[in-house]
Every structure is written in structure tokens, then in C-alpha cells.
């Protein structure tokens, strides 16, 4: 069922607390990003989840919902106290207005909306793993990108080359997970399990033996684009 929530226009923090960096500035995330209150951010485990948000003021809003991707957290103020709150990018905000009224809608500041979870759909992209700067053979840090379906990740495991053992990775912050120990030897296989309704996907040998920090390695797989 849709739920009621207030929201305000986003402050457009570069990259956001989920750690997606410059991905928020390009398609398919561009114009679809949003920050959410802690109750939806879930300490970073809510990163990547998608929501349909629709304005209730039919005097200035169309009946069209906008789909937003959680890329940031809006702490304190209206976002605190257990409230549900969306802080949208200016572009996402404007898309809900009737034709020609985008600027006027942004001037309203806070509005009531209905919202619901929706499946993430990245248009043919597969799940990718970005190796964060500073990663070594003893500390491997991965950022997960472009998860279709539920979008959020509840657990993540890593398997090294020539090993049958899956090792639990630790959720650090945002969409970032890491593995301590080592030395770690690639290629690495990665197993993801979604947060809301556990679904598991295994990307075998997705990160090559000669991986490098700041490298991004794309799998051949993705979750089903539905909830």
C-alpha cells in the first residue's frame, strides 16, 4: 500500500552517503536520485532501493509518479525522529509537476506525497563491482552498482581462487562492503543476497586476478527486475 510522507527538494549533495560518487551524475541514475530519512536509509542497507513517489497536490502536480533511487541520507530536522521523508533532486521534483509548473513546484518546499517500493530497472545493465581506492591484498573494499529488482543488499560473500569456502564480507557504510585478512588471491567470485526478500545471485570469477583499486568489474548477471 502507498504510504504518506512529507518531502523537500534535495540539497544535491555530490555523490551522497551511499558512496556512488559520480554515478549519480550520469544515466541511469541522473535525475532519479534522492536522499531518505534514516528509517528508510537503514544505516546504508537501504542504498540502491527504488521508490515511486507521487505528489498529492493536484493543483500543481500531475498524477505521474517519479521513480527515485536511494543514494543519500537526510539526517536530522524533518528527516529525524523516525519520520519518513524524501529529499529529491530538483529534476526528480520537477517531473511531478503539471506541464510548465516545475519551478513553481520546487518553490513550495515541503509537500505531502504517497510512496511505495518499486523494482529497480537499469535498462540492460548488469551488476558491477567497483574496487574502492585503498584496497589491498589484505583489505578489499567493494561498492555494488546497478542491482535490478529490490536494489538493496542484505549480505555479501567472497570466494577466492582455488577455494571452496565462501567468506562473509562486512557492511561498512552505504553500498560498500569489505573483507579483512589475507593475503587475498583473485580471481574473486561474489555472492549477493538481497535485503527485503532474500534472493541470491552468484557472480563467478567476476573480479580478475590482476584487479586494481578504482577498477570496476561488470558481471554477466542481474536480479529479476521485479519485486
Automatic annotation (TrEMBL):
Any Pfam family: DPBB_1
UniProt entry keywords in alphabetical sequence: Secreted, Signal
Full protein name: Expansin-like EG45 domain-containing protein
Chain ranges of the Expansin-like EG45 domain: 15-125
Family indicated by similarity: Belongs to the expansin family. Expansin B subfamily.
Family matches, as InterPro entries: Expan_Lol_pI, Expansin/allergen_DPBB_dom, Expansin_CBD, Expansin_CBD_sf, LolPI, RlpA-like_DPBB, RlpA-like_sf
GO CC annotations on file: extracellular region
Subcellular location: Secreted
Domain Expansin-like CBD per the UniProt entry, residue ranges: 138-219
Amino acid at each position: 500500500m502507498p504510504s504518506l510522507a512529507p518531502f523537500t527538494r534535495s540539497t544535491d549533495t555530490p555523490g551522497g552517503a551511499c558512496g556512488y560518487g559520480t554515478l549519480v551524475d550520469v544515466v541511469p541514475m541522473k535525475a532519479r536520485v534522492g536522499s531518505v530519512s534514516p528509517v528508510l536509509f537503514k544505516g546504508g542497507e537501504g542504498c540502491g532501493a527504488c521508490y515511486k513517489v507521487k505528489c498529492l497536490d493536484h493543483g500543481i502536480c500531475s498524477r505521474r509518479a517519479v521513480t527515485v533511487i536511494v543514494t543519500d541520507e537526510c539526517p536530522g530536522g524533518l528527516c529525524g525522529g523516525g519520520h519518513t521523508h524524501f529529499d529529491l533532486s530538483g529534476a526528480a521534483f520537477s517531473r511531478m509537476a503539471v506541464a510548465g509548473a516545475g519551478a513553481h513546484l520546487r518553490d513550495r518546499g515541503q509537500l505531502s506525497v504517497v510512496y511505495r517500493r518499486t523494482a529497480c530497472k537499469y535498462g540492460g545493465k548488469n551488476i558491477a563491482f567497483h574496487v574502492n581506492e585503498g584496497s589491498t591484498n589484505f583489505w578489499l573494499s567493494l561498492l555494488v552498482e546497478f542491482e535490478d529488482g529490490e536494489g538493496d543488499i542484505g549480505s555479501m560473500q567472497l570466494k577466492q581462487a582455488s577455494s571452496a569456502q565462501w567468506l562473509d564480507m562486512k557492511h561498512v557504510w552505504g553500498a560498500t562492503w569489505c573483507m579483512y585478512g589475507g593475503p587475498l588471491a583473485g580471481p574473486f567470485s561474489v555472492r549477493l543476497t538481497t535485503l527485503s526478500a532474500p534472493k541470491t545471485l552468484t557472480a563467478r570469477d567476476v573480479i580478475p586476478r590482476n584487479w586494481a583499486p578504482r577498477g570496476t568489474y561488470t558481471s554477466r548477471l542481474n536480479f529479476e527486475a521485479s519485486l
